[in-house]
Each structure stands twice: as structure tokens, then as C-alpha cells.
């Protein structure tokens, strides 16, 4: 019999986070999404993606821990962002910003949510990393360093939680068909006079399947990791990239 769990998805109103929230809802869970934009949160809730949406910035540790610590069984740390620059022009502020957004926010949410999970003997933490967490890419060194840290954090905490009923895993998508990539395509077109097709090829070239990953394909992995059937899977980094890694 399907058990309804309470799930929290950060960055849940757009892109991969929205797809994961929708898939968890479809699986019968009670889903709350977090995001910075009230309008997109309300639209997602109105369309049945989640039962509620809360406006926060995940780098605000006080706000994030207050919500994450309110009894969720499933935590999906999806919020994050990428900053681009050649390494020699990547200053300390960029590295600190990438770490705060991608790593520290996930750690804060995990610290807040896990005591309740341990007490109940069940918990699922899914950190959305990236193929940038398992390989290098040029001109995004701060982002790559941060995503490698997310994967390392996942593996370390998974060992500490191994006997508690709480699993901790990372999902590492390749370039995914989201607004973020669409905006990047527009930016490349504007800066280089390439066609949209040529600009998109920049993102699909590294995928042996020659296409972008679908957000729903990432969501399917997250729903499985959140299930009872994945109880013995922890400390893993599941790459969804069409064979790129």
C-alpha cells in the first residue's frame, strides 16, 4: 500500500525541481516547494505540482532551517546556481557564492531535517548535483568545485546515517532542457551571432545521445530514491547524462 510522505523540494517552482515536485505529488506524497518567486510558486501550486509553496532564499539559513526542520520525510535539495568565468578571473567572492548557494544550503537543510527523520526511523535526502560534480568543465571552476563538494557531502553523511533508516544520495544530471539552458542558448546567440541550433549544439555535444536530458528523467530517479524500494541505496551518485560520464 502506498504510504504518503511529507516532501520538501527547494528550488521547486521551475525546471528540474518543479518536475521532481510534480512526480512526487503524482506518487501520492504531500509536497511543499520553496522558491524565490511568489508568482511561479503560486502557478505551480495552482497547477497541482505541490500543495503549498513558500518564498525563501536558500542562503538565508534561518528561514531555510525553520521550514526544513518541520517534519519532512523526504528532502530534495535542488536549489543551486552556476557562475561562469575563467579560473584566473574567478575571485574569492564567486567561490564563496557558489559554495553558499550549492553546498551550504544543502547542508543547512539536511541538519534541520535529519533529526526528525532519525527519530521516525525513515528519511530520504536527495541532493541534486550535476555532472559537474563528477567531472570538470572549463570556465565554471567555482561551480564545479561546489558540485564536487555536494557529492562529497552526500557520501560522508550517508555513512553517518547508514543505520538510521535515512538514506542520502545525489543525482547528477547533464545539461537538462530547462529555462536555465534556454537562457544560456539565447545569451550565446546574442554574444556570438550563432544560430539557436548552433548554440544548443554546444550543450548537446557532450551527451552521446546528442540531446538534452528531460527534467522528467531526473524526476523519475528522485522518486525511486524516495521510495521504500530504495532503502538499501545510500551514498550513491546517480548520473543521468545519456552516457556522458
SS content category: alpha/beta
Overall average residue pLDDT: 95
Total DSSP helices: 8
- Unreliable parts: none
Helical content (DSSP H or I, runs of 4+): 40-55%
E-strand count: 7
Q: Quote the distance from N terminus to C terminus.
A: 36 Å
Strand content bin: 15-25%
Order of helices and strands: EHEHEHEHEHEHHHE
- Using only C-alpha atoms, the radius of gyration works out to 17 Å
Largest sheet: 7 strands, parallel
General shape: globular
Q: Please give the order of strands in the largest beta sheet.
A: 3-2-1-4-5-6-7
Describe what you observe in this structure.
It contains 8 helices and 7 strands. The protein is 46% helix and 15% strand. The model has no long low-confidence stretch (mean pLDDT 95). By secondary structure, the protein is an alpha/beta fold. Strand 1, helix 1 and strand 2 (30-35) form a beta-alpha-beta unit. The chain has a 7-stranded parallel sheet, with helices on both faces. It has helices spanning 15-26, 38-46, 61-68, 92-120, 141-160, 179-192, 196-204, 215-225, and strands at residues 6-10, 30-35, 52-55, 74-77, 123-128, 166-173, 237-240. The longest helix has 29 residues, at 92-120.
Concise structural overview:
With 245 residues, the chain is of the alpha/beta class. It has helices at residues 15-26, 38-46, 61-68, 92-120, 141-160, 179-192, 196-204, 215-225; strands at residues 6-10, 30-35, 52-55, 74-77, 123-128, 166-173, 237-240.
Features:
alpha/beta; single chain; seven-stranded parallel beta sheet; 245 residues; 8 helices
Lay out the secondary structure.
Layout lengths: L5 E5 L4 H12 L3 E6 L2 H9 L5 E4 L5 H8 L5 E4 L14 H29 L2 E6 L12 H20 L5 E8 L5 H14 L3 H9 L10 H11 L11 E4 L5
Parallel strand pairs: 1-2, 1-4, 2-3, 4-5, 5-6, 6-7
